[in-house]
Amino acid sequence: MILPKKERQLLARLRAGSKQAVREWFALFFPYLLRLAIGKVPHREDAEEIVQETFINCLKQLPLFQERARLRTWMVSILNHEIADYYRRRYAKRALQVIPLANVLVAQPVKNASETSLKVQQVLARMSTKRQELLLLKYVDKRKVVEIARRWNTTIKAIESELFRARREFRLLYLQLAD
Questions:
Q1: Cα–Cα distances in Å, from 169 out to 103, 126, 130, 172?
Q2: What is the pLDDT of residues 60-71, one digit of tens each?
Q3: Which domain range does residue 97 map to?
Q4: Residue 105 burial (10 A CB sphere; 0-12, 13-18, 19+)
């Protein structure tokens, strides 16, 4: 697909780092993306934040945009991913009730899921914020190590090492709590 001349020019200016192009781009697409987001999330403030995150991610991915679709179509695709992330984060606490760290929890007899959920939450509360977030990203949000490394601006090996330490810490704290 060949993009319309106006879109190609806007893209060229965006890729060149023009602040004016960013303002025009935002003004052009923000209302449309916001309407879509408002229709999919319960609160306007959340919809606005999701749309802003969409623009940030679009800017980050701009060098990779291959112009196989219209700019708006590409942005809607990114918006939909942001909305999915929003719901994953929003329901992470519920997910903890059904997705505990199985290798530790299966070894312990559990009377019911709410007891397990409570223990998982207590263990996570005792861990550092960084390790908590890492475990949630990996096991609740189902993020790949590569994605986490990119998000945290570090190496894959560093994330793998930190995950190893976080899982070990979780196991130890969980077993202490079980005793």
A1: 13, 10, 12, 5
A2: 888 888 888 899
A3: 93-178
A4: middle
Q: Identify the CA nearest to 152 among candidates 165, 137, 167.
A: 137
Which value, in Å, is the radius of gyration of the alpha carbons in the chain?
A: 21
60 within 8 A of 24, measured Cβ to Cβ:
no
- Other C-beta atoms lying within 10 Å of the C-beta of residue 127: 16
CB 177 within 8 A of CB 170: no
Sign of CA dihedral 80, 81, 82, 88: positive
pTM of the shown model: 0.53
| Cα(112)–Cα(115) distance, integer angstroms | 6
- Say whether both 104 and 170 belong to one domain: yes
Q: Which amino acid is at 93?
A: K
Domain end position, chosen among 65, 90, 115: 90
Mean pLDDT of 31-52: 93
Q: The CATH number of the domain where 58 resides is what?
A: 1.10.1740.10
